[in-house]
Specification:
heterodimer; A: about 220 residues; alpha/beta; two-stranded antiparallel sheet; about 20% helix; B: about 725 residues; alpha+beta; seven-stranded mixed sheet; 28 strands; globular
């Protein structure tokens, strides 16, 4: 499977996702943000980081960058798109995913291992997970507090477009297990065609037992399935 | 403009220093030249009060590739890999403007490391604040922590370890020390020494603005009631630009176009150009019209003294400019040839076609003043504390008091604001004795830790100096790493006061003695004097940052108890030294007495043997015993685990408080499986190490037989409340 990771000047999880993809046997290429053509890819990843410094709203400038037009085109042609952390923020800025990511409820950057629950395990990204499986995964963000209007929320629920929800170790989804104030504990969502996934947690950080755990591996092996 | 006495004083120079300048120039300086002298001759840049003492430090060893004197120290970790690291203070700016002060502290130390050709792989910090009840403490804490996080998180280097302490000695002077660690190829280290005549001097990075002018001079004086007015001398950080600069520099360093490189840190363009020229015994001519400026009508004086961040000075090989410029264009950074190296041995500054200043390089560098300041040895307190005279408390009360105190409370409120996991090589995070970072793509790893013990250093600077080196060494040992080398950040008060200078001299003696004995050399560092306000000086606070090597990384053992019914071994002798202990401070507000003695022989023997046991996989968890003594170390091992311990009462030392709260040095706690006990005991006996089997791990409770029994969930709660309620 061929993957492309878009590298913005302030991306800082680009190497990490590149390492994870290669470990999982993807044929990966790193694509610089000033490129105007994308190589043919089965998967495009928008990595975490601070794309253009994010002194303006996170992802706002990246959402207007040269390469992003190509990403939008590919997405509309059905290419798989994965936006992690800043990548999720960029996807909402481009309109490929609806809703927005507000500042964390406690107004602080949060980095820690938390739990998420697999809500929909029937997509290209999640078919190797069990439904309601609880994953231990790392988050690292200042703006991860997902918000959307009630109509879109209804749509997300009715069409099973919520990918992951924050939960506790036992899988309960409640206020205590919500690290950033996200609407209904949403940690990741799909677009209506389910070829685009945006998520705040970092699956690429969970592919190595020695460093963390391997709870992120099935996301990549789902894609290869 | 006539140089008046007032102008000289405003530049932080005294009359005799001004006379000296005139002698070196053989004429009066103009304002630009005076500004340059003031920038180079201040304490921060010239080390004029500390240099004589720093020379005595132990800086050698087979592992050392580059010792003090460069942008950072470099050590060998085998396979052509080198670790580049340094710690630096940003105390004064962080008190005036906590967010930007702390952020630019991180930015500055990162540049020191990537300037040498290393990709930064870890950040650490040591931050000290005043009493939590002081009205400024809360906002300083908030600002500093978010500044450190804001910079490191954005640039994408994990902040993996640190220490945070509170004491009223820092009420008017907080300390912010940042350490960066980078990875380089041993045969591809870059230095600041200029070579060759007529080589292009290139300015890269951000544009020069009017921020931070006289920052280094500000950091070379005490504070007073007008401190707030110094806000404009604090620089503003831009981590995004630093990220671009880092990537561009590392990209350029892949080929052979750089002769020398130096970051523009304190005293900006002045210190970088002088340092490069001085090290190469050359002159340098700068055409200031070419300096990329952020604002209009900037004067040569402003350009030379600005401390705008995220800038570098390079000297390039002939004909390499075009290729180099391409890389900086790619990263959208300024790239401008602003001058050349010369054989005049002068710093020559041109502006509008005229020479605006000309100073012999050596007058600014090697001929900068050196002071052999008066110092006196500390009078040692003779007061003996008799426990019988103190109000009786029970053990649980004393323990709870310490566990819930600001200095010993769980610090995840802070560490959760730092990205510790980016780069995916952090095998052990904050909250342990040391952090562990895997060398990317390899089996090996380094362990890193920062430590300080200002209370010990205050009461007995010589012992205190030894103690911090030893504590830092122990923290690397328990991570299973062989300690290799340290960097030190020496935070002290006013060196013109002979007591303060005495604290400095004696702490350094102690550091030297321990480093030499443990073969644990100092390879880089920084001195921060004048940490005082209105003649009130801070306690001497040398901070040690250490790096150790793990040859083959396996899952870190950490300090959490792993299972029940395992044996707990206490390595090292317990004498019950309570003076200067956290027990007396937290429970009785007693600050008197001397710190526990350091026995370097035992320290080395104990450490090396514990390391061997860990490397041979005979230990399930390990922890060093430091402030708070045995009981606190045991609690820390329980709190972070779901297992507690049951501890026997001591047979020899009958006073329980002395036994459990004493802060005797050179001690470790080890969790050992019963099946490995004979092997471990034999190994300890063979090496003549004193040890005791003090009890067992058990489920759910921390217990001292017949004295106290607490559920570890309650211990966790007690330990986690303070920050959330502050």
């Amino acid at each position: 499977m061929k993957s492309s990771v878009i590298v913005f000047p302030g991306s800082n999880c680009d190497r990490d996702i590149g390492v994870a993809l290669e470990k999982m046997q993807f044929k990966n290429q790193m694509i610089w943000h000033k490129e105007t053509k994308l190589p043919k890819s089965d998967l495009i990843v928008l990595p975490g980081g601070f794309s253009y410094g994010d002194y303006l709203r996170s992802g706002a400038i990246a959402g207007k960058s040269l390469i992003i037009d190509e990403v939008v085109k590919a997405a509309n042609d059905g290419c798989l798109i994965l936006g992690i952390c800043n990548g999720f923020q960029i996807l909402t800025e481009t309109g490929l995913l609806k809703g927005t990511l507000l500042r964390n409820k406690n107004l602080k950057f949060i980095n820690k291992d938390i739990q998420i629950k697999v809500i929909n395990n029937k997509t290209k990204f999640s078919n190797k997970y069990k439904k309601n499986q609880v994953l231990k995964i790392n988050i690292a963000h200042n703006e991860g507090n997902y918000f959307t209007d009630s109509k879109h929320l209804q749509d997300l629920k009715e069409n099973n477009l919520i990918a992951f929800k924050y939960c506790d170790r036992k899988g309960s989804v409640n206020d205590q297990s919500n690290p950033n104030g996200s609407l209904e504990n949403i940690a990741g969502i799909y677009n209506s065609n389910k070829n685009i996934l945006g998520m705040m947690p970092h699956p690429e950080r969970m592919v190595d037992e020695l460093i963390s755990n391997t709870d992120g591996i099935n996301l990549f092996s789902s894609l290869l399935n | 403009m006539k140089i008046t006495n007032q102008i000289i004083e405003n530049h932080g120079l005294n009359a005799s220093e001004f006379e000296n300048i005139k002698k070196l120039l053989k004429r009066d300086p103009n304002l630009l030249e005076l500004g340059i002298f003031s920038a180079m001759w201040n304490e921060h840049c010239s080390y004029k009060s500390s240099r004589l003492h720093l020379k005595k430090l132990y800086t050698k060893g087979k592992q050392v590739i580059q010792g003090p004197g460069e942008n950072a120290g470099v050590i060998d970790i085998g396979d052509n890999d080198a670790i580049v690291f340094k710690i630096e203070s940003h105390n004064h700016p962080s008190y005036i403007e906590p967010y930007q002060g702390a952020a630019t502290g991180v930015g500055g130390i990162l540049r020191d490391v990537f300037t040498m050709g290393a990709r930064p792989i870890a950040l650490l910090n040591s931050i000290h604040f005043g009493s939590p009840s002081h009205p400024k403490t809360k906002s300083l804490l908030n600002g500093v922590v978010s500044g450190i996080g804001g910079y490191g998180n954005c640039i994408g280097i994990p902040t993996v370890a640190g220490e945070t302490k509170f004491d009223e000695t820092y009420n008017e002077n907080n300390l912010v020390n940042a350490m960066a660690v980078g990875l380089a190829k041993k045969d591809k280290i870059f230095y600041s020494k200029a070579k060759g005549i007529n080589k292009s001097v290139v300015y890269v990075g951000s544009k020069t603005g009017r921020d931070g002018i006289h920052g280094a001079s500000m950091a070379s004086a005490e504070f007073d009631e007008n401190t707030e007015d110094k806000k404009p001398t604090v620089q503003v950080g831009d981590p995004f630009t630093e990220k671009l600069l880092m990537e561009a520099c590392l990209e350029l360093m892949k080929d052979n176009s750089i002769i020398s490189i130096q970051d523009m840190g304190a005293a900006g363009l002045t210190s970088s150009s002088v340092e490069m020229a001085s090290k190469g015994s050359l002159g340098m001519e700068l055409d200031l019209d070419k300096v990329p400026c952020r604002e209009k009508n900037m004067t040569p004086y402003e350009m030379m003294l600005s401390e705008s961040q995220e800038r570098m000075l390079l000297i390039l090989e002939d004909d390499k400019e075009k290729d180099a410029k391409k890389i900086f264009d790619k990263w959208d950074l300024d790239f401008m040839v602003i001058g050349k190296t010369t054989d005049t041995n002068n710093l020559t500054l041109k502006f509008n076609g005229k020479i605006e200043g000309e100073i012999p390089i050596e007058a600014l560098a090697t001929k900068a003043p050196i002071y052999d300041r008066k110092w006196i040895r500390k009078k040692i307190s003779k007061n003996k504390i008799n426990l019988k005279d103190l109000k009786k408390i029970n053990m649980e009360e004393a323990l709870v008091k310490i566990l819930s105190s600001p200095n010993h409370s769980n610090k995840s409120w802070i560490t959760n604001q730092y990205d510790q996991s980016v780069m995916c090589d952090t095998a052990q995070k904050s909250g342990s004795d040391a952090a562990i970072i895997r060398i990317h793509g390899k089996d090996k790893a380094i362990a890193v830790s920062v430590d300080s013990s200002a209370n010990y250093c205050k009461s007995h600077p010589l012992t205190g100096g030894k103690q911090i080196v030893c504590e830092n060494w122990r923290n690397l040992i328990t991570a299973g790493a062989k300690p290799l080398a340290i960097t030190n950040c020496l935070n002290f008060g006013n060196p013109e006061n002979e007591n303060i200078m005495g604290e400095f001299a004696e702490c350094l003696e102690g550091i030297k003695e321990a480093c030499e004995f443990l073969n644990y050399p100092v390879v880089s560092g920084n001195v921060s004097f004048y940490n005082g306000t209105n003649q009130k000086n801070i306690n001497p606070t040398p901070v040690i940052g250490g790096v150790g090597l793990i040859n083959k990384l396996s899952k870190p053992i950490s300090h959490n108890f792993k299972k029940d019914k395992n044996v707990i071994i206490l390595v090292g002798k317990t004498f019950g030294h309570l003076e200067q202990s956290c027990f007396l401070r937290e429970n009785y507000k007693i600050f008197d007495g001397i710190p526990p003695d350091i026995n370097l022989l035992n320290e080395k023997n104990n450490g090396e043997n514990v390391l061997k046991l860990i490397q041979n996989k005979l230990i399930l968890s390990s922890h060093d015993i430091s402030d708070g003594g045995l009981i606190l170390a045991l609690c820390e091992m329980s709190i972070s685990s779901s297992y507690g311990a049951i501890i026997k009462k001591p047979q020899k030392l009958t006073n329980l408080f002395k036994y459990f709260f004493g802060e005797d040095q050179g001690r470790y706690l080890l969790e050992v499986e019963p099946s490995n006990l004979t092997k471990v005991e034999k190994s300890l006996k063979d090496s003549n190490i004193y040890y005791e089997n003090i009890g067992f791990t058990q489920k759910d409770y921390f217990e001292i037989e017949g004295e106290l029994k607490i559920n570890i969930k309650d211990l966790f709660k007690i330990n986690n409340e303070w920050y959330n309620n502050y």
